[in-house]
Amino acid sequence: MQQKNESFKSGFISIIGRPNVGKSTFLNQVVGQKIAIMSDKPQTTRNKVQGVVTTDDSQLVFIDTPGIHKPKHKLGDFMMKTAKNTLKEVDAIMFMVNADEPIGRGDRFIMEMIENTETPVFLVINKIDLVHPDELFKIITSYTSEYDFAETVPISAKNGNNVDRLLKTLKTYLLKGPKYYPDDQVTDHPERFIISELIREKVLNVTREEIPHSIAVVIEKIGREEGRDMVNVNATIVVERDSQKGIVIGKRGALLKDIGTKARHDIEMLLGSKVFLELWVKVQKDWRNKPGQLKEFGFREDEY
Ligand SMILES: Nc1nc2c(ncn2[C@@H]2O[C@H](COP(=O)(O)OP(=O)(O)OP(=O)(O)O)[C@@H](O)[C@H]2O)c(=O)[nH]1
């Protein structure tokens, strides 16, 4: 979907922290009524989207990365790797700690996990309403002496204190990007929308200027394979002309393969499981001028 605002920024932020530090309270505080929780997502998903904050010029998508909150839990290599990969690929990591408790084993476990990651890590000291301001410096130092954080922001998720500043600072770490979710989160299956945007983005990246924005991506099917940690995605890339179909497919299918590999990678990150992606290319002349088809392709009037 083309953005009206050319400088629109968006990105994914992983929230990590020991149990009870206030992650849910924070999400409730920031998403308010505009909550876009993927409550209908299958529980097997590992990287859960927990909330989306949309403003006029940005969209922050907060995701949870289970597997790193429970140091006692014996994680398989695969889980550990998946969690680490997620942390590498998000735009920022919010490491939330409790101002009211001393740094502990759980915090150190997480800090080890994020060691050497190039993703900017925010130290978010929550529950500052519970401590005397004079103590804050000492608390902050106990963490910053062990890890080089990109930013340190003390907040109270409960009463909202300094939360605005945190959001503003997070925004400065985002790059230009699409609006993954509609403002009011209307669709039943928002992952369909994100997946189609991810594929569309890859088509545009790979084909550069040759394909104008006259393509749409329709997700035909998303299904989890029974008994296997694998999601099947069937999608159709709709173009307007035969010549565009040739461009998207490329010599001996090379370009389509490249689009598929790149998109699959991103979708795997989004869903937290292995993905089998099947892509088709279809010519649908003049699809942009047919209102019925616009709707079918997921376009809403106010966005077009
Ligand atoms: N005083 C105070 N209490 C807070 C604050 N943020 C969260 N809490 C309280 O801390 C407790 C845990 O908060 P949650 O938001 O459930 O914590 P969580 O990190 O989501 O917990 P898990 O789901 O177990 O990981 C609740 O009783 C909250 O009311 C805060 O800023 N100040």
UniProtKB/TrEMBL annotation:
Residues 207-285 form the KH type-2 domain. Residues 43-47 are annotated as: G2. InterPro entries: G_ERA_dom, GTP-bd, GTPase_Era-like, KH_dom-like_a/b, KH_dom_type_2, KH_sf_prok-type, P-loop_NTPase, Small_GTP-bd. It comes from the Bacteria. GTP binds at residues 17-24, 64-68, 126-129. GO terms for molecular function: GTP binding; GTPase activity; ribosomal small subunit binding; small ribosomal subunit rRNA binding. CDD domains: Era, KH-II_Era. Residues 64-67 are annotated as: G3. Residues 126-129 are annotated as: G4. Residues 17-24 are annotated as: G1. GO terms for cellular component: cytosol; plasma membrane. Keywords: Cell membrane, Cytoplasm, GTP-binding, Membrane, Nucleotide-binding, Ribosome biogenesis, RNA-binding, rRNA-binding. Transmembrane segments: none annotated. Residues 9-176 form the Era-type G domain. The keyword Cell membrane applies. Residues 155-157 are annotated as: G5. GO terms for biological process: ribosomal small subunit assembly. It is found in: Cytoplasm; Cell membrane. PANTHER family: GTPASE ERA, GTPASE ERA, MITOCHONDRIAL. Monomer. An essential GTPase that binds both GDP and GTP, with rapid nucleotide exchange. Plays a role in 16S rRNA processing and 30S ribosomal subunit biogenesis and possibly also in cell cycle regulation and energy metabolism. NCBIfam families: era, PRK00089.1, small_GTP. Belongs to the TRAFAC class TrmE-Era-EngA-EngB-Septin-like GTPase superfamily. Era GTPase family. This is GTPase Era. It comes from Filibacter tadaridae. The lineage of its organism: Bacteria, Bacillati, Bacillota, Bacilli, Bacillales. The gene is era.
